[in-house]
Amino acid sequence: MKDDMITLTPETADQLRKDFKVTKQYLGKPQVTINISAENLTLLTTGIFSFLSFLIMFFLIAETIKSFNGKA
Fold first, then answer.
1. How many CA atoms lie within 13 A of 2 on its CB side?
2. Quick one: which H or E segment has residue 19?
3. What residues contact 63, with CB distance under 8 A and at least 6 apart?
4. DSSP 28
5. What is the pLDDT of residues 26-40, one digit of tens each?
6. Does an H or E element contain 1, and which?
7. Domain range for residue 23?
8. Does the reported pTM lie above 0.85?
9. Which of 6, 9, 10, 65 gives 20 to 30 Å between its CA and that of 48?
10. Half-sphere exposure of 44 (CA within 13 A, CB side)
11. Distance CA 59, CA 54 (A)
12. Torsion over CA: 47, 38, 40, 29 (sign)
């Protein structure tokens, strides 16, 4: 039991403080600031909806072709 105990001297106390020191940057919340202009937002929204409409059209065309072949 005595082998598990450590003697706390000023040197070991300083080392423990260094080992367990938590800097302020880990305590603060990260701040992410992104400025999106109206033009960029418009382009992004248009691109997303265009991609989604492409996927829907692709799915509908694929299902139509399947039904023509009698595999539906």
1. 0
2. helix 10-19
3. 72
4. S
5. 566 667 777 888 898
6. none
7. 2-29+37-69
8. no
9. 65
10. 6
11. 9
12. negative
Give the CA-trace dihedral at 37, 41, 43, 47, to 10 degrees.
Answer: 160
Is the model's pLDDT at 22 over the cut of 60?
Answer: no
> For residue 30, what pLDDT is reported?
66
- Report residue 16 as tokens: 């423990």
Alpha carbons 70 and 64: distance in angstroms, whole number: 10
Question: What is d(CA 62, CA 56) in angstroms, rounded to the nearest whole number?
Answer: 10
16: amino acid identity, one letter? L
Residue with tokens 């992104």: 34
Q: How many domains does the chain have?
A: 1
Closest CA to 16 of 5, 24, 8: 8
